[in-house]
Design brief:
Elements: E1 3-7, H1 12-23, E2 27-32, E3 57-61, H2 67-77, E4 81-84, H3 91-96, H4 98-118, E5 126-132, H5 155-174, E6 178-183, E7 186-187, H6 196-208, E8 215-217, E9 223-224, E10 227-228, H7 229-239, E11 248-250, E12 256-257, H8 258-268, E13 272-275, E14 280-282, E15 285-288, E16 292-295, E17 300-304, H9 322-328, H10 336-359
Helix pairs in contact: 1-7, 2-4, 4-5, 6-8, 6-10, 8-10
The structure holds NADPH dihydro-nicotinamide-adenine-dinucleotide phosphate and guanosine-5'-diphosphate-rhamnose.
Cofactor: NADP(+)
Function: Catalyzes the conversion of GDP-D-mannose to GDP-4-dehydro-6-deoxy-D-mannose.
Catalytic activity: GDP-alpha-D-mannose = GDP-4-dehydro-alpha-D-rhamnose + H2O
Length: about 375
């Protein structure tokens, strides 16, 4: 039985990857942070009582900012594969917590690599590093491939740039099997509520159900290459099954604006939107916009709030998945309409529950960040 260690197992990708590897017969270990409330919602359905025999999922308390605990866990687990998914992953929040982001996302990767080296596991343990399309940042060329130059535009992306290069360096310096997956945006019903797609699908569901009036967003003109997280965790696994360690772009090759994602999500919730005035663009931002209106009811349901503009923005991401198709044989199963449908239908179910609870006098989450 192969053994995998997943950092960030409580996150969107960690949850899908854990389920995928358990399905492949792996023993899966995960690192979770100590939090004041339970933070394992996304993997609770995979939980196995540690008192039972033959448990194949085990969680360890840990943090990427603590090398002593990483060394101890890796020594205990002796993993065949480490998937380093843990990170402070929100681009806008990284402007507010730049030092912590550098520590967790940049140095955290070094701590993992160094732990494997110190423990003499370089010949055994393969390492996947969760790199990102945010590395491309300010557009140099499109579509972005493994050879496109990087130009990071946020403390998050700069921290991930360090992580990318330290992974390449340990591979070259010590012959480690360490790879970067340069993944473009991938979403799902498990996506964190403050990323733009999930923020939109949650709000569209709430507005359709009559428990929210309006959605405030930032830059509607940003374009992203959106795929489904379920497809992307399979690519992570494939990257570590190759004969030689290499870096791969994982993307759909199709880009869509935030504005169009809004239209699609609301349509899936049964609301046709019309944007009146595409807004005045300045430095890549829509500085003013008369918003999106519910057709035919006429009320404005989406407005631009400059609070959500970033000090430096990434305007356009579109990935070139040629190498991953040719070498890994990887093909996404979900296209964007299928992704929107999956997210929207899941949020309609969740928000119906909220509506019912609210109608019965219980408090529900009405924090829309
Ligand atoms: P999430 O934000 O959903 O999950 C991040 C995970 O990291 C959570 O389990 C979180 O724990 C954990 N974590 C955060 N800080 C620390 C820390 N200091 N020590 C230990 N664990 C920590 O991210 P995703 O699942 O979406 O992304 C997974 C990885 O892939 C991240 O590294 C992200 O930067 C990267 N990535 C994501 C893309 C995407 O579109 N989703 C695209 C490209 C790269 P907790 O649950 O306690 O908060
Ligand atoms: P991103 O994802 O920054 O690409 O990082 P996010 O969904 O946060 O933003 C995508 C684009 O939408 C614009 N936007 C808004 N974003 C948010 N969060 N909230 C808003 O209200 C809003 N309005 C417009 C943003 O400006 C941006 O252009 C994600 C994360 O998962 C990273 O960890 C990962 O590395 C990259 O994807 C690839």
């Amino acid at each position: 039985m192969k053994t995998a260690l997943i950092t960030g197992i409580t996150g969107q990708d960690g949850a899908y990857l854990a389920e995928f590897l358990l399905g492949k017969g792996y023993m899966v270990h995960g690192i979770k942070r100590r939090t004041s409330l339970f933070n394992t919602d996304r993997i609770d359905h995979l939980y196995q009582d540690p008192h039972e025999q033959q448990v194949r999922l085990k969680l360890h308390y840990g943090d990427l900012t603590d090398s002593t605990n990483l060394i101890r866990i890796i020594q205990e687990v002796q993993p065949d594969e480490i998937y380093n998914l843990a990170a402070m992953s929100h681009v806008q929040v990284s402007f507010e917590t730049p030092e912590y982001t550098a520590n967790a996302d940049g140095l955290g990767t070094l701590r993992i690599l160094e732990a494997v080296r110190i423990l003499g596991l370089t010949g055994k343990t393969r390492i996947y590093q969760a790199s990102t399309s945010e590395l491309y940042g300010l557009v140099q060329a499109v579509p972005q491939s493994e050879s496109t130059p990087f130009y990071p535009r946020s403390p998050y992306a700069v921290a991930k740039l360090y992580a990318y290069w330290i992974t390449v360096n340990y591979r070259e310096a010590y012959g480690m099997y360490a790879c970067n997956g340069i993944l473009f945006n991938h979403e799902s019903p498990l996506r964190g509520e403050t990323f733009v797609t999930r923020k939109i699908t949650r709000a569209a569901a709430r507005i359709a159900l009559g428990i929210q009036d309006k959605l405030y967003l930032g830059n509607l003109d940003a374009q992203r290459d959106w795929g489904h997280a379920k497809d992307y965790v399979e690519a992570m696994y494939l990257i570590l099954q190759q004969e030689k360690p290499e870096d791969f772009v994982i993307a759909t090759g199709i880009t869509t604006s935030v504005r169009d994602f809004v239209r699609m999500a609301f349509a899936e919730a049964g609301i046709q939107l019309e944007f009146r005035g595409e807004g005045v663009a300045e430095k890549g931002y829509v500085k003013s916009c008369s918003g999106a209106y519910h057709v035919p009811e006429g009320q404005e349901v989406v407005s631009v709030d400059p609070r959500y503009f970033r000090p430096t923005e990434v305007d356009l991401l579109i990935g070139d998945p040629t190498k991953s198709k040719e070498v890994l044989g990887w093909e996404p199963k979900y296209d964007l309409p299928a992704l929107v449908q999956d997210m929207m239908q899941a949020d309609l179910v969740l928000m119906k529950k909220d509506k019912y609870l609210a109608a019965s006098g219980y408090n529900t989450l009405n924090y829309y960040e």
